[in-house]
Prior knowledge:
Blueprint: E1 32-33, H1 44-57, H2 71-74, E2 76-77, H3 88-112, E3 121-124, E4 130-131, E5 137-138, H4 145-148, E6 152-155
Helix pairs in contact: 1-3
Amino acid sequence: WRNGWVAPNFGFDQGFEIYQNPLARQSPDSVRRNARAGRIAGTDIDLVYSGMEFMRMNIDRRWFLYLHFMDVHQYVTDASTARFGNSYSDSYDNSILWVDRQLQGLVGELERLGLRDRTLVVVAADHGEAFGEHWHEGHARDLYGEVTHTPLILSFPFRLDPGVVIDTPTQN
C-alpha cells in the first residue's frame, strides 16, 4: 500500500499475513512529479517491485496480492508517458499511461514466472477525477459521475471469446 488512507491504523491490514508500505527507493531521476496535493515518497515502481518479489517468493503457494497504486494521484510520468500535453487533465492522462506501464510490468512478471495462466488480475479505481465539469477539480468534493464512475477490469487466466464488456454499474 502507498496510500495513507489504507494504512494498518485504519484496519485495512486485517486478514493479511503481510501488509507493508514499500521502501521508497526505485524512482528514476527522469520521473516528473507535478502533484497538486502533498507528495508521497517514492513511486509505484516501488510497489511493483515489492509485488514482483512477493510473487517470486510465493510462486508455489496460493496467494492474494493487493497493490494500491498512487502515482495517478501524484501526476507521476516520464518522457515516454508524457504524450497528452500540459493541461491539468493531460497530466492526469499522462499519469494513467505511466501506471498502465507499471501494470504491464507486473503482468509481464506473472507471465515470466508462469503464473499468468492461473491468476485472476483485477484492476479497480476508488474514485475518478474532476476537471472543472461541475466547477470543481480533483475528487472528494462532490458525487458527480466524473468522480464516482470508475472502471472494474477482470483479466481472467483464460480468454473469453469474444471479449465481454458488461455495462451494468457496480460499486466499491
